[in-house]
Design goal:
The chain is of the alpha+beta class. The chain has 2 domains: 50 residues, no CATH class; 34 residues. The chain is 43% helix and 24% strand. It has a 3-stranded antiparallel beta sheet with strand order 1-2-3. A hairpin with a 2-residue loop joins strand 1 and strand 2. The protein is flat, with a radius of gyration of 24 Å.
Length: 114
């Protein structure tokens, strides 16, 4: 159990610092068309997949295909708190996206009626 003096000392050693997000240039940008979210113990595991349909040149070759491979291209582990913040951020950004699409559609309609 920490003493009052230790608590005060720990409080004196705290400092709020801003976070600087850095995306390395060499980090590849991957397209994901499948996502799996699992809850394990006390964390969420997000797995991002990329479908890899086979290339077939004939109908006969297509008939032989038994499945489409979907490769995991990234796994991310999040605490419940981080998951909640991510859901909020994604929801807010998706709402902005939908609003932008609606505004573009309205603009096109206005241009066509002129």
């Amino acid at each position: 159990m920490a003493t009052e003096t230790e608590d005060r000392l720990n409080e004196d050693l705290r400092k709020d610092l801003p976070i600087k997000h850095v995306v390395p240039e060499e980090l590849p940008l991957m397209f994901s068309d499948q996502t799996v979210v699992k809850f394990q113990r006390d964390v969420f595991v997000l797995m991002f997949f990329q479908n890899r349909p086979p290339i077939t040149l004939t109908r006969e070759a297509l008939e032989e295909v038994e499945h489409v491979e979907s490769r995991c291209i990234a796994q991310v582990v999040l605490t419940p708190q981080a998951m909640e913040k991510n859901i909020e951020a994604m929801s807010a950004n998706f709402e902005k996206f939908k609003k932008s699409i609606a505004e573009q559609a309205e603009s096109k309609e206005e241009d066509q009626t002129k």
